[in-house]
Amino acid sequence: MTEAQRARASMRDGRWQGPTVYKVPGFVQTNLVVLSQDEVYEFLVYCQRNPKPCPVLEVTDPGDFEPRQSAPGADLRSDLPRYRIFRDGEQAGDVANITDLWTDQSVAFLIGSSLSFDDALLRAGVPLDRVWVLNSNVQTVPSGKYKGPLVVTMRWMTSEQAVIATQLTSRYPFNHGAPVHIGAPEMIGADMENPIFGNPVEKIPDGVTPVFWACGVTPQEAALRAKPTLMITHSPGHAFITDLRSDQICIP
C-alpha cells in the first residue's frame, strides 16, 4: 500500500479530517467538483476555456464514484478528509462523507492543484511557510452561466526564490503551471483581508515577495454563481490525493 492509499484509507474511516496542505509529498492532489449530469456540459466548457485555473485531470462517468484513471479503487464519496455542500448557490455546511448525497447522475471533476508541486519547491530550496487562497478581480472566460473572477493561491518567498518557483512550476501545467502574478497584490485585486483559506493579512513583511498561482477553487466559485441545485466540492485545503506521481505529471 502506498502512502497515498494509506492516506485515503484513513480519510475513509474518519481518522483523517484535517487539511492535506504539505501532506503526502510526491503525489498529485486535486480539487473536487461534483455536479449532476445535466449541469456538466457548460461547466466542462468553462474548464476548457480556462485551463490555467481549471486543469481537468479526470471526469468520472455518471454515477461512478471511482476515479479509475488517477486512483483506481478509491471512492470519491469518502476518500477526502472534508467536503463542502452547496444548494442553489448557498453554502450548506461541511461533511466528512457524501455517500448519502451521491446519485446515479453524479459526475465528479478532479482538477489539478498547486499543492501537488509543494514538495518540488521544497526540494528546490523554496520554503513554504504558509499558503493562502484569495479572490481576485481578474475575470475568467465565461461559458453559459458559469463565469466569475479568478481565485489565486498566494505564497511568500524572496525575489530569488520567486525566480526558482516560476521556472520550476512552469513544468506542471496540469497543476496550474507558472504563477499568474508576482508582486503587488493590489494589481490583481487580491483580497487579503477576507481570504477563502488562511488568516487575514494586514501587511506583507519587508523582504517578502508575494507570488500568486491560479487556483482550482476558481471553478467552484463560478459554479456557485451558476447556482446549481446541488454542488459538492472539497473543503478548501482538504484535497483528494491521487496515485499519480507529481514528478511524472509534468514537463521533463
Please, could you describe this protein's structure?
By secondary structure, this protein is α+β, with helices and mostly antiparallel strands. It is 18% helix and 27% strand. The strands form two sheets. Strands 1, 2, 3, 4, 5, 10 and 11 form a seven-stranded antiparallel sheet that branches. It has a four-stranded antiparallel sheet with strand order 6-7-9-8. The two termini are 27 Å apart. The mean pLDDT is 93.
Which structural class do the helices and strands define?
Answer: alpha+beta
CATH topology of the largest domain: PSTPO5379-like
Low-confidence stretches: none
Reading the helices and strands in chain order gives: HEHEEEEHEEHEEHEE
Q: What percentage of amino acids are in beta strands?
A: 25-35%
Instruction: Provide the residue-averaged pLDDT.
Output: 93
- Secondary structure tally: strands: 11
Shape field: globular
Main sheet properties? 7 strands, antiparallel
- Cα Rg: 17 Å
CATH homologous superfamily (4th level) name of the largest domain = PSTPO5379-like
Could you say how many structural domains there are in total?
A: 2
Which CATH class of the largest domain is shown? Answer: Alpha Beta
- The percent range for helix content is 10-25%
Query: What is the helix tally?
Result: 5
